[in-house]
Amino acid sequence: MDIFPLILPFATLVSFYAILTSLSWLRRFIGERMAARRKGMILNLTRRAVPPIIAGLILLIAGGALGLVDYIPLAILLIAGGVAFGVHKGLSDLHSQNWRELALRGAITLALTLFTLWQLGVI
Asked: Considering the entire predicted model, what is its pTM?
């Protein structure tokens, strides 16, 4: 079985989760008053999110230079996954998330993903 048709829906799901989680993280970042905590939040996010983002950008550049097929959804999955992981772990370090917040974020992510995939004609 070829896994490449499954990468686009999963990359879309992870991208929407990264966007919604980044909005929550940004809300906490803007509300933080201490400059040292803001700097710590940025360093924490950088430490967790930058390595997968760099790997995704390398894949984009190398895939385009080598003429690979179906490398863009995989690169998007790497980049969005890195952002989602970094921001999610950063939020969980700041405070313990309750299940309602996670369930709401998951439901909105799923709804946006299914709508987008439906509009693209994937499902």
From this structure: 0.86
